[in-house]
Design goal:
four-stranded antiparallel β-sheet; 4 helices; 10 strands; disordered N terminus; Jelly Rolls
């Protein structure tokens, strides 16, 4: 059986498809504008230390520094003037330092968020977790009111980066409450809350037609 010339068949077929009216059709490279979605994060670690029964802690995160919007856009090669949308996409939580009490739980937890001088809004509600079992990231159910606080801030940070007015104080204050069990044994763990921010912008790409 002769097989040495079989490699020629795909080339012949391609040539036949590329020839119309005696002319060989060459592919054309053209520029196209497409939308590209990238992500940034706002991450904060919160210590829960010394609480006996009622879990009640506050923590502050600098969103301007933590998100670093300019760096996210530069890495994705998106010009800030081409950004079309920015918003909170989701949130995750996990324990980063275990509690000495193996059965530690936080029940009926709530996380609120506010800007400096602004109203406090619910970000996460009905939060229940067995502390020492949450060592990998889990999705948190977000509340629209708290998300709105964050979206307003990151929208202002985007406008600031585009040359608009300053977003002002870009810190957020988290307020975490809930019931810590077992009762009568002080808590001693650290957990992490991560907000995922979606950024959509336009980029120019080359495509072959």
């Amino acid at each position: 059986m002769r097989i040495r010339n079989l490699w020629q068949l795909p080339a012949v077929a391609l040539l036949a498809l590329s020839v119309q009216g005696g002319c060989i059709l060459m592919p054309e490279v053209v520029d196209r504008i497409v939308e590209l979605a990238v992500s940034g994060t706002v991450t904060e670690q919160l210590d829960a230390v010394g609480v006996v029964n009622t879990h009640d802690d506050r923590d502050t995160v600098d969103v301007r520094g933590e998100l670093d919007l300019a760096a996210v856009l530069e890495e994705a090669d998106i010009d800030v003037s081409k950004v079309k949308d920015i918003k909170v996409q989701g949130a995750t939580y996990r324990t980063v330092r275990l509690d000495p009490q193996a059965t530690r739980e936080i029940q009926n937890g709530t996380v609120t968020v506010r800007r400096i001088g602004g109203p406090e809004e619910v970000l996460i509600s009905n939060f229940n977790a067995k502390v020492n079992e949450v060592t990998t990231a889990r999705t948190a159910q977000l509340n629209a009111a708290g998300v709105g606080v964050v979206n307003t801030l990151i929208g202002q940070l985007l406008d600031e980066l585009k040359g608009g007015p300053s977003a002002g104080d870009a810190r957020l204050i988290y307020h975490v409450t809930g019931t810590s069990v077992p009762a009568g044994v002080a808590t001693d763990f650290t957990w992490e809350l991560k907000l995922v921010v979606s950024i959509v912008g336009e980029v120019e790409v080359e495509v072959v037609e």
